[in-house]
Amino acid sequence: MRLRQLVLCAGLALALTACGKRESADERSPVAAPPSASAPAAAAQQAAVQQKTAEQAADLPSKITRMNEDGSETVEDVPSDSGAHNPLLAAVASTIATASAATTSGPTLWQEGVNYTRLVPAQPTQVPAGQVEVLEFFWYACPHCYAIDPMVESWKKTKPSYISFSRVHVMWNEGHRSLARLYYTLDSMGKLDQLHGEIFKEIHLNNDPLIAADPNNAAESERIQTAFVTKHGISESDFKKAYRSFAVETALQRADELAQRYRIEGVPTFVINGKYVADVRSADGQERLLSLVGDLAAQEHKH
Asked: Which of 94, 113, 228, 263 is deepest in the core (most CB within 10 A)?
């Protein structure tokens, strides 16, 4: 019974990785299990093997060949001193130690094709020279986007200045599009920072989807969202004026184009500088995902 409970818990944990394109708020598609071993674990294991090899090499007695006056050779054993006085062993140990260090630190923690995918060809970005673009594709009704959002907000405050970060709300159906319109309306009004977190809370804590029961009823969704923002101090007239403005329509069109260009099939998904795509599952965790994003961005900045 306990084994069954553990298996069930593991299954639930794996399910909390991403919301797929074809899912509704009440229906989630199955998620493939992650690799059996994480990148850090594999790196640590490899480093341990390399260290043991270095120690074994250092413990072996060294051989010194001496040339005698009569032309013969004499081979002498020299007691082990961990290679400190043997240039060859010292060089071997140094090389192995360097390889171990490189395996367990820095960007080499991440494996292309495992932790992230390289886009071929790379896509153009819309940031100034010297900046690295990072996009987060998300959906307000996605529980996984809600779960990672506090970490993203914290990361935004500490990220390097060369990272230009922005979110892109997906629009896979009319329900997604309605919430995307709410997002870009508040963005155009300069009120997004004020209400971004409140929208997540309204949907996931208060169980208010902020869209009509019939997602195709755009007028009802607008009424529901207007009531929500006015409750938080936003002018009703200003909100309605911006709701279907040219700026919002343009933002919605661009968001749709970006999602199609990067073939976004699940959220949250991060795209780094138009070259790399990663998500919670590939990075093996939320915190690791943000570390991966930071490392790839730093690599891009150096180049």
From this structure: 228
